[in-house]
Amino acid sequence: MQQINQAHIEAAIDIVDNFTDDQLEAHFEKFSEKYPVVLSYIHSAADEYDNDELHGLLAYYFCLISECFEQGKVVVTEITEDDIEGFEEEFFAMLDEYFESDNFDLVEEYTDQSELIQFMLMEISTPDEDGSEMDDETATQLFIVTTAMITLIGKHIAE
Predict the structure, then answer these.
(1) What is the pTM of this model?
(2) CA 15 to each of CA 21, 29, 98, 111: distance values in angstroms, whole numbers, following the listed order
(3) What residue spans of the chain are helical by DSSP H?
């Protein structure tokens, strides 16, 4: 399986963080068309968490993570509703085991995208440039949803 590495992540950050609002919206639309089921899934997760801050964060990370896969020139097969339904039980079982054991290796092994997962862990645990930090609940929710996104896309990388 193709791996997203630090160079892909840094290139994606340089691109997404330097967009104007219009460019970011166009980028979001591009990836919305490429991953419509994933986008629907992550938005429904934010709705279930009833967290308005999470919606905005997920829009940004949806663009950033999608751009990471673009930078890696990764070809992804279509992700369907059936794929998500089949994924959820195993995913949540892995998360339960992780939260019980605090063994991060479980998450890295399950997603098979360790550098991207490590990047997200740093994102939720490190203050922004202005010193602001996410509250623990939002950080945990963001980590869960982006881990699901990374896993879904990663498991659909064409061979």
Answers:
(1) 0.91
(2) 13, 15, 32, 24
(3) 6-16, 21-34, 36-49, 52-71, 81-101, 104-111, 114-125, 136-154
What phi, psi does 76 have (nearest 5°)? -115, 130
| The one-letter amino acid at 108 | E
* Rg of the chain (C-alpha set): 15
Predicted confidence (pLDDT) per residue in 1-31, tens digit: 689 999 999 999 999 999 998 998 898 899 9
| Residue at token pair 């089921």 | 37
Residues in CB range of 73: below 8 A, 6 or more apart: none
Residue 32 CB neighbour total at 10 angstroms? 16
Q: Provide φ and ψ at 157, rounded to 5°.
A: -70, 130
Place of tokens 């591009």: 30
- As beta bridge partners, residue 157 has 76
Interior/surface letters 122-146, b for 16+ CB within 10 angstroms, e for the rest: ebbeeeeeeeeebeeebbebbbbbb
Cα–Cα distance, 31 to 66 (Å, whole number): 7
